[in-house]
Design goal:
globular; 45% helix; 41% strand; 3 helices; Alpha-Beta Plaits; single chain; 4-stranded antiparallel sheet; alpha+beta; 4 strands; 115 residues
Length: 115
């Protein structure tokens, strides 16, 4: 089982019920695949850095969960097929932690050499 985080941007012109439905479908997929949900953060409507499909705003939510790779791929497939989803990205959290560790070690060595 791996830890994942999925950030998703939904079209701003859909109702809150549609956004709740997308989140509910993802969580139902997780539960059916024996995954666990750590946290669901709804960031709400925010301005995009650049237009996506001629939209300047989007509804953001972040889903943090633990599951196997197949369940994570299924959630990505569902988001890809949903026309209301503008963008999404899933990241395995251990990979981020491992990538940050060498950078921290380099900073510590650099500070130790200067002191």
């Amino acid at each position: 089982m791996n830890n994942y985080e999925t950030v998703c941007i939904v079209r701003p012109d859909v109702s809150d019920d549609v956004v709740k439905g997308i989140i509910q479908k993802a969580t139902a997929t997780l539960e059916s695949g024996k995954g666990t949900i750590a946290r669901v953060d709804e960031w709400g409507r925010r301005r995009l850095a650049y237009p996506i499909q001629k939209k300047n705003e989007g509804f953001y939510f972040v889903l943090t969960f633990t599951s196997n790779a197949e369940v994570s791929k299924e959630i990505n497939r569902q988001l890809r097929l949903n026309e209301d989803v503008l963008r999404y990205q899933t990241v395995r959290l251990e990979e981020l932690q491992k990538a940050a560790e060498p950078a921290k070690e380099a900073e510590v060595k650099a500070e130790g050499g200067q002191a």
